[in-house]
Amino acid sequence: MTNLMSQEKETLCYDRQQWRQGYQSQPNEYDYFIEDIEGKVPEELQGTLFRNGPGLLEVQGTPLKHPFDGDGMICAISFLPNGKVHFRNRFVRTEGYVKEQNTGKMIYRGVFGTQKPGGWLNNIFDVNIKNIANTNVVYWGNKLLALWEAAEPYQLDPKTLETIGIDYLDGVLNPGESISAHPRFDPTSELDKGQPCLVNFSIKPGLSSKITIYEFAENGSLLRRHSHTVPGFSFIHDFAITPHYCLLLQNPVTFNPLPYFLGLKGAGECVNFHPKKPSQLIIIPRKPPYEKMKVLETNAGFVFHHINAFEKDNNIYLDSICYDSLPQVKPNTDYKETDFENLDPGQIYRFKIDLNKETIDPEMLESRCCEFSDIHPNNVGRNYRYLFIGTAHKNQGNAPLQAILKLDLLTGKKQVHSFAPQGYVGEPIFVPKPKATREDEGWVLVMVYDGDKHRSDIVILDGENLEKEAIATLHLKHHIPYGLHGNWTSEVFI
Ligand code: CO
């Protein structure tokens, strides 16, 4: 046994116990200027980084079955013109969070398998889900919105992070309607005289699924909305845009809700992945009259996230992170016991889509385990050269994300900045320098959990030379549990 354990230690570039501690809840809410800084924060870096993710990994003493079920907690890191940096975190005070905190009881089941105490009798026919608002946070139309794909957005005050309440996007959504947590920001919308616009989608599941596309102007008003029906159950977390199309990849999954309704399983445990079946790429035009969508088949494995898409020489290209098999949520398993060695890595594929021939050619761009990407904001939907993405320390197999990879899609050149063995990274955010002329001329901001010190750091890396020492490392006074998505705005909120 001792031999086995020391062997494991030798081959792993992380400590499992330290990795697990990154899933400890952070029940406290902080508000302070960051003083413990190594290096120097660039003066031109001004704005606010908003991040979202589960803040509580248990509810009133009952541990969650899956971190995706955790109550959303927003972090705001404000970079001021005087070089100071301010940190603040607040829970989204959703109806469910407030009820559970006030009553001291777990009231809701989680979508990803968390059951209320009391066994199936206490969970049967309980489809009352909690809007946990934990997946993404965007600043758009002068509103800060916390997003979760199964319910309405929550609006927060961007300065104080106080929860204002459910936001129906000025009447665009009806009560009970949801919108995805993965909007895409078109930097220069052709239909809007080159103005930026936000594109998002929603899915209404049923025997067939209704996909609705929404486009919003910078002031938050609705520009366009159109709906399309696809057969079967859809599990689509993310999508991609080009100037003329929305691309949605329908994973080869089926959904058997019976164990969920019977209180035996969470909804997420009832999704079955069929690795031998093809995925369906749904291509929806963005321009009126929204002529009929196209549905093409390809083998893509399972996809949560896309990196980007673009049009070139009459083809569409889609870059995505693909898993050969779905890391399925299974009953009676603990996510903290995840056996990384037995999971397939997320790998980057490029899909070349020929709309005339109706063919899709996949090509692997990167075999190293990757997840959570970002690119230069002006290249969303356009041909691009650089991507930044979370990656494992080792270049083979699945493992926790401990490094950031910069991939040059023109030359294939790679740069890796690793925080192993004690550092665990979240989604990198690329912020261009104010007068930048080169695509990678900017900063890569990343929140890193330091398992050794049990605290989190905000690290600023140089986008042009990712491998060099960090420009600055800002030590928080505490840890923030592993997060999901976030966004940068050049407005300074404090
Ligand atoms: Co996501």
Describe what is shown at a glance.
With about 500 residues, the protein is mostly beta strands. The protein is built from 4 helices and 35 strands. It binds cobalt (II) ion.
Mean pLDDT: 92
* Name of the level-1 CATH class: Mainly Beta
CATH architecture title: 7 Propeller
Ligands bound to this protein structure = cobalt (II) ion
**Helix percent band:** under 10%
The low-confidence runs, each spanning 5 or more residues with pLDDT under 50, are 1-10
User: What's the N-to-C terminus distance?
Assistant: 53 Å
Number of strands: 35
> How many individual helices?
4
| Main β sheet profile | 6 strands, antiparallel
Helix and strand content put the structural class at mainly beta
Rg on CA atoms, Å: 22 Å
List the helices and strands and how they pair.
Layout: H1 2-11, H2 16-21, E1 31-33, E2 37-39, E3 47-54, E4 58-59, E5 62-63, E6 72-79, E7 85-91, H3 95-103, E8 136-140, E9 143-147, E10 154-156, E11 163-166, E12 184-186, E13 197-204, E14 208-216, E15 222-231, E16 240-241, E17 245-250, E18 253-255, H4 258-261, E19 271-273, E20 279-285, E21 294-298, E22 302-312, E23 315-323, E24 347-354, E25 359-366, E26 370-374, E27 386-392, E28 401-408, E29 414-418, E30 423-425, E31 429-432, E32 442-450, E33 455-462, E34 472-475, E35 486-489
Antiparallel strand pairs: 1-7, 2-34, 3-6, 3-35, 4-5, 6-7, 8-9, 9-10, 10-11, 12-13, 13-14, 14-15, 16-17, 17-20, 18-19, 20-21, 22-23, 23-24, 24-25, 26-27, 27-28, 28-29, 30-32, 31-32, 32-33, 33-34
